[in-house]
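User: quick one, fold this
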Amino acid sequence: QVRLVESGGGLVQAGGSLRLSCVASGQTFGAYYMAWFRRAEFVAQISWNSGSTKYADSVKGRFTISRDIAKNTLYLEMNNLKPEDTAVYYCAARKFLPPTVNDHDYWGQGTQVTVSS
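Assistant:
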């Protein structure tokens, strides 16, 4: 059974940093795209094989998506956090194509990020 389990959320002051993790289990993800979403909006995506990335304009330059293939883990490094970044963050996976809110193969349970002003 494939599972995506997020962790690393919490409460942080504006300007602070957090690193989210998403552990993927149940299969290998070589042909997959993985992504982070919040409030049903796209945040960032990565190709598991090539490592190529894409970001929403609202997080470009502040957030970094990465993956550790050996650990089957997806990360989202978030710096210079703003109150508007407050949301539940979800990781998602889809084979051959980038996942979207409506088109994905797997979706995690989410981790809450709260940024205080």
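User: anything notable?
Assistant: The chain has a mean pLDDT of 96.
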